[in-house]
Structures are given as structure tokens and as C-alpha cells.
Design brief:
alpha/beta; TIM Barrel; two-stranded antiparallel ribbon; 9 helices; 41% helix
């Protein structure tokens, strides 16, 4: 064995020992709910410096107009579908027949054009209803739309029903603004960032509150420096590959 070969082998081994592992990718996506009520306020959402997803309520005065604006701005539009305990002409309730649920869903889609998918507004009672959620996921599959489970209740079966039929779907990890103070919202954003580093991704949902928008406008431009890639909701669905995180299931299966 030549001296040159031995030295080369030692160099290779040294390089192997000291090579730093590739850092894990960390992704975040952001959905802003409850849009369509106030155009000047909602337009601040469109001005956020990245691929924010706009979740528009069908029973708001500017639902159709704002959906068109968001689409023109290149943002992904989703229907923010009211579900029990939400009320109103579009809201789903457990006692309604499937025919009425379909009628309300059709009417909601007409009010919010350019939708790529839906997420639930409220829905702690409704998303626990297995027959209705199974029907909804099959209907979204037929319409070629995805589903985002807002997870307003630990009893939700929505994501599980989506997963059963292979519907493109993802679940929320962090609500940013249950407490409407900038300090609390910043804490929640930092929680999402830490979660993204820990598990590879985090799905955030916020609302167009002045405090939320102020924090997002200030902090989102800093994500890249913190090792975070801000991606759109469709990319997040691809990253997650329809698998549940540890907080939402076991071995990738929603519970």
C-alpha cells in the first residue's frame, strides 16, 4: 500500500469526521383568517412581504371584491367556511342534512371566487361530525380543492377524513393572536419559529387585527436570517405530504 494512498485515505476520513451535518430545512406558512370585512385593513395583508394565504369569509360585505384583489395580487385565496358554533346564512350545523350543507357550500364558493381550498371558521362542533366531514372531503376532492384544518377543537376529525381519501390537506399548528397584544403575538410567532426548527415546518393562522399586522410587518422580513423559509400553503401541503405532525397524530396518521 503506497504512502500516497494512506495519506489520501486519512484525509478522507478526517473530512468525514469533521463534516458538519446539513441543517434541517425549516418552513413556515401563514394564513390570515376573517378577511372581507374591511378593505383598507385587509389590503395591509396583501402588502405583507411574502406568500400569505387569504382566508375570506363568504358572509362579509367585501368577500367577492377582496377575493378578486387578492387573486390579482398573486395571493392564494381560500374560503373561510363558517361552521357551528358560527352562525349566519352559510354556516354549517350538525342538524342540517347533507343537501343543505351542499347548498350552503355552493353559495359560499360563489361569494368567494378564485378559491384553491377552504379552512373552517370556528367549527368546534361541526368538525367533530364524521359523516359531514367525510362528505366534505370527498366533495373537495371532486372540486380539486385542498383543505386546511384550523383545529379549533381537539375533537376534530376533519384532517383524518381528508387523509383517508388522500385529499391534499394540512393542519394548523399555531394561532398567533388568541391574545390581542403585540407581546403575546410576538411570543406566538417565536413559538411557531421554534416549532418549525424542531419538526421542519409550522402552519400559522392569524387575523387582520392591528396588533397582529404590526408584528407581522416588523418580524416577517427577519425570517430568512433565522433560517426559516416562508412558503405558500400549497408548498406546505407538499412538504407535509399529508402526514400528521407528532402533536396531531402518531406515525403520520391523524388521530
Amino acid at each position: 500500500m503506497s504512502l500516497r494512498f494512506v495519506l489520501g485515505l486519512l484525509c478522507c476520513l478526517a473530512g468525514t469526521v469533521h463534516a458538519a451535518p446539513a441543517p434541517q430545512k425549516a418552513y413556515i406558512t401563514l394564513i390570515i383568517d376573517d378577511l372581507g370585512q374591511n378593505l383598507p385593513r385587509d389590503r395591509r395583508v396583501l402588502a405583507l412581504p411574502g406568500p400569505v394565504t387569504t382566508a375570506i369569509m363568504p358572509d362579509t360585505p367585501h368577500a367577492t371584491e377582496f377575493a378578486r384583489e387578492a387573486h390579482r395580487a398573486g395571493k392564494i385565496v381560500i374560503l373561510h367556511m363558517p361552521m357551528d358554533p358560527a352562525t349566519g346564512p352559510f354556516a354549517w350545523h350538525p342538524e342540517l342534512l347533507i343537501e343543505e350543507l351542499e347548498k350552503r357550500l355552493n353559495a359560499a364558493f360563489k361569494r368567494v371566487p378564485y378559491t384553491s381550498g377552504i379552512n373552517n371558521h370556528m367549527g368546534s362542533r361541526m368538525t367533530a361530525q364524521q359523516p359531514a366531514m367525510a362528505w366534505l372531503m370527498a366533495e373537495l376532492q371532486r372540486r380539486h380543492k385542498f383543505f386546511v384544518d384550523s383545529r379549533t377543537s381537539a375533537q376534530t376529525v376533519a384532517a383524518a377524513e381528508a387523509q383517508k381519501i388522500g385529499l391534499a390537506s394540512v393542519s394548523r399548528d399555531v394561532f398567533l393572536d388568541d391574545e390581542r397584544t403585540e407581546a403575546a403575538i410576538l411570543t406566538q410567532l417565536q413559538t411557531a419559529i421554534s416549532l418549525a426548527h424542531k419538526q421542519g415546518s409550522a402552519v400559522m393562522i392569524g387575523h387582520p387585527y392591528p396588533q397582529t399586522l404590526a408584528v407581522l410587518e416588523r418580524e416577517l422580513p427577519k425570517l430568512k436570517a433565522q433560517g426559516i423559509d416562508w412558503i405558500d400553503i400549497k408548498q406546505m401541503i407538499s412538504v407535509r405530504s399529508n402526514r400528521a405532525t407528532a402533536a396531531h397524530g402518531k406515525d403520520g396518521v391523524y388521530r
